[in-house]
Amino acid sequence: MKAYDNVVIFHHPLIQHKIAILRDEKTSMKEFRELIEEITTLMTYEAMKDGVPTVTKTVKTPLETCQQQVVADNAIAIVPILRAGLGMVNGVHTLFPAARVGHIGMYRDEETLEPKEYYCKLPDGIENKFVILLDPMLATGGSACDAIDLLKKHGCKNIRFMAIIGAPEGIAKVAETHPDVKVYVSTLDRELNENGYILPGLGDAGDRLFGTK
Q1: For the chain, which end, N or C, has fewer CB atoms within 10 Å of the first or last residue's CB respectively?
Q2: Which fold has domain 7-210?
């Protein structure tokens, strides 16, 4: 796959270990959900190591006072793409517990494979926040691009997109359509099949998260 300046693909052995279990068709819904959260936390730690909005705070230790950098209040917004993106929210909240959460609802037309928006609710002032957009599977890239378009229409300028598994086709589409958005993917898979599913993938992430199939 072509290298993109705005794309980071993780090769951390701990993440890869968890993804191996995540892929297994025998993994239970409970364990699948926990793994999604754990992988998301690890990805968030790496993805946000540069660029997190911070302020300087005076802290009194038992010995003296010092100046310390802390995450700015009300600076982060988490936006999952419904429904599978919901499974990643707690993983980000582990590191940013005060982050506001918005929701973008999209579904894929089974015939055209194109995304269709059906819901959007975003926190007030999101245009001034650092936005973390979430979707476990980056397949065709259609939903991610449309969600980024929607966030930009609301004035968002600092957006980072995170996916657990990505296909080359989807990564290329997001990277080229939105070169100003950093894309973080924990694993690059081989390709899409004729139905737009990632191979080898892990099946339908939403169904496996919520036990609907």
Answers
A1: C
A2: Rossmann fold (3.40.50)
